[in-house]
Design goal:
The structure is a single chain. The chain contains 7 helices and no strands. It has one domain. Helix 2 runs antiparallel to helix 3 and helix 6 packs across helix 7. The model has no long low-confidence stretch (mean pLDDT about 90). By secondary structure, the chain is mainly alpha-helical. It is elongated and about 65 Å long.
């Protein structure tokens, strides 16, 4: 265990809070970390199953963000990602005035596993509708999360800096 970590810490602190705080001790700015968390949240709910890790990787690589943190955020959001796929699709279909998707999740999964290529051909427009709705929701969400995270991370960075100064 490293300094500041305790075996008695709850799992969520060991797996989420402590790694983020550790990044602050290693020189990553609160600003960059806030963007990393916010963009990880936005990309972690991308409405195409099986793509969120790649979307987060590309976003982090393009924007120079912290890969481990963005992946932790992305992977912690998998329940939200799965829960939001259909709402994004339905919202996208509503935006475009398209008829709603009538197939059930078990039917869609059966079709996907039977022939992924055929599934992609049959449902690309449905996926596009979900992506459009995601863009409309995710962009403001990213800015909101960054706005909420930045003061928390700045305060944590200040506490870390004060501890370093007191120890020196």
């Amino acid at each position: 265990m490293s300094e500041g970590e305790d075996k008695q810490d709850p799992w969520w602190k060991r797996w989420f809070i402590n790694p983020v705080l550790k990044q602050l001790t290693q020189g990553i700015s609160a600003e960059k970390l806030a963007w990393t968390i916010a963009i990880g949240c936005g990309c972690g709910i991308f409405p195409i199953m099986g793509t969120t890790s790649i979307v987060c990787f590309i976003a982090a690589a393009t924007l120079g963000l912290n890969q481990p943190v963005i992946q932790v955020v992305c992977h912690s959001l998998w329940p939200a990602h799965l829960a939001l796929i259909l709402p994004f699709i339905k919202f996208g279909q509503w935006i475009h005035g398209s008829p709603p998707l009538t197939a059930s999740i078990p039917t869609l999964l059966k079709e996907f596993f039977a022939s992924p290529w055929q599934f992609a051909q049959d449902y690309w427009l449905v996926a596009w509708h979900g992506v459009v709705a995601w863009l409309l929701i995710a962009l403001p969400l990213v800015f909101l999360i960054r706005l909420l995270m930045l003061p928390l991370l700045r305060a944590a960075a200040l506490r870390i800096e004060k501890r370093k100064e007191a120890a020196a």
